[in-house]
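Tip: read the tokens left to right.
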């Protein structure tokens, strides 16, 4: 490890510690590395711009952000909630089940855990608290836990980022996330059922059967979103990026033409907010690209690969070790940073050990999402605190059972790769 790298990393951690956003911290660290190593500082700007504009796949990220924001503002979320209440509200802990099912369905619109928590999640928390059947902390905790499903079921922004650094097929990654996402929903509903019986949480009034067809029809646009995406990709009609554009257009048409729930002013605000979110993500991606340049220059991936090869570690032991590391990093780092900066270091080792990159990618994304609810710095905990005003200590006190069951589900996915790979292989994946 060179002295330039040590100084660059030191600068990165110092500026991050004083509160500078992670993207800017990375840029500062790289500039220190380049200057102390006698390299041209323009390399940073060149790498950043080149990789951002060369990456056609990256266009999917802002398009998914736009489609999610349009869905949130276009009254589709309200219709989705009514459908979920009609479906599972009648069971013990009904609103908790509604929370899980809504996240499963909403994940097909957003691809973002934060969007899920701040959008439909806030609505459900308010409904749970107003019902008087649930504590504020419990409502917030289960919402945070269920929001982790959003980036697992397609579309998935973190999986797009993983595909960028691993060259794995984004289409097969999307397919691979379906069963794990459903599994996460199932274990969260099981935990909600267990807790609801112990605490005697109530049921919602059953929706009359005559109303179910109308409620289902109103929710159909949201239900069809993942179907349209996967059909477009696997029919060969579109690329994943083009499918993301179709998703955004689809959301726009339904919100403006069919539901008439959006005017020009609202649409303008959506585009502004989406542009800000996309710019923020793009800056992190760009910064990670120039950090990747530094990592390659220092031969760090090869060093890590040789280290593991020399230790004769088994593929399973390697996966368990990486899982533990990502869980710990998830306590303090954003999922985007983990996927774009940390994970590329382990891709050569995965190839050397014969680990399937689709399986590895899904594990990493699931793990990173669990990190979003891991105290003390889980991002979703802070997001829900910000949008609801519920104290962090109340949320943290209630989140542990959900965190534990999600970690258990992750362990099962690690030990049984077929859970992840069954659906991609059904559609022709040869890995």
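Filled-in amino acids:
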């Amino acid at each position: 490890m060179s002295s330039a790298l040590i100084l660059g990393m030191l600068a990165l951690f110092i500026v991050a510690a004083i509160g500078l956003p992670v993207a800017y911290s990375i840029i500062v660290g790289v500039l220190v590395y380049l200057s102390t190593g006698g390299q041209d500082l323009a390399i940073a700007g060149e790498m950043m711009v080149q990789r951002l504009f060369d990456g056609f796949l990256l266009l999917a990220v802002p398009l998914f952000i736009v489609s999610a924001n349009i869905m949130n503002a276009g009254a589709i979320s309200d219709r989705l909630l009514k459908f979920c209440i009609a479906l599972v509200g009648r069971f013990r802990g009904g609103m908790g089940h509604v929370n899980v099912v809504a996240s499963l369905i909403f994940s097909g619109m957003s691809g973002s855990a934060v969007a899920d928590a701040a959008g439909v999640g806030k609505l459900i928390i308010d409904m749970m608290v107003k019902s008087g059947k649930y504590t504020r902390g419990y409502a917030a905790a289960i919402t945070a836990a269920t929001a982790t499903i959003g980036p697992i079921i397609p579309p998935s922004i973190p999986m797009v980022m993983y595909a960028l650094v691993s060259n794995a097929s984004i289409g097969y990654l999307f397919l691979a996330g379906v069963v794990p996402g459903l599994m996460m929903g199932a274990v969260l509903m099981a935990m909600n059922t267990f807790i609801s019986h112990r605490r005697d949480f109530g049921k919602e009034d059953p929706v009359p059967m005559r109303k179910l067809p109308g409620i289902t029809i109103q929710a159909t646009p949201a239900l069809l979103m993942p179907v349209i995406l996967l059909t477009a990709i696997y029919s060969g009609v579109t690329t994943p990026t083009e499918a993301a554009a179709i998703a955004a257009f689809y959301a726009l048409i339904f919100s403006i033409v069919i539901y008439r729930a959006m005017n020009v002013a609202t649409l303008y605000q959506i585009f502004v907010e989406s542009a800000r979110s996309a710019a923020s993500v793009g800056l992190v991606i760009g910064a990670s690209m120039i950090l990747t340049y530094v990592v390659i220059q220092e031969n760090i991936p090869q060093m890590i690969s040789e280290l593991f090869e020399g230790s004769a570690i088994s593929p399973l032991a390697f996966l368990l070790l990486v899982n533990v590391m990502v869980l710990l990093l998830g306590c303090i780092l954003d999922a985007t940073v983990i996927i774009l900066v940390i994970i590329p270091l382990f891709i050569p080792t995965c190839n050397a050990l014969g680990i399937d990159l689709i399986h590895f990618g899904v594990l990493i994304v699931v793990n990173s999402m669990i990190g979003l609810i891991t105290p003390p710095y889980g991002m979703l905990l802070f997001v829900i605190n910000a949008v609801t005003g519920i104290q962090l200590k109340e949320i943290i006190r209630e989140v542990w059972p959900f965190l534990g069951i999600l970690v258990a589900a992750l362990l099962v996915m690690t030990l049984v790769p077929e859970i992840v790979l069954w659906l991609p292989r059904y559609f022709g994946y040869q890995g």
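The chain has one domain: 40-426. The longest helix spans residues 264-297.
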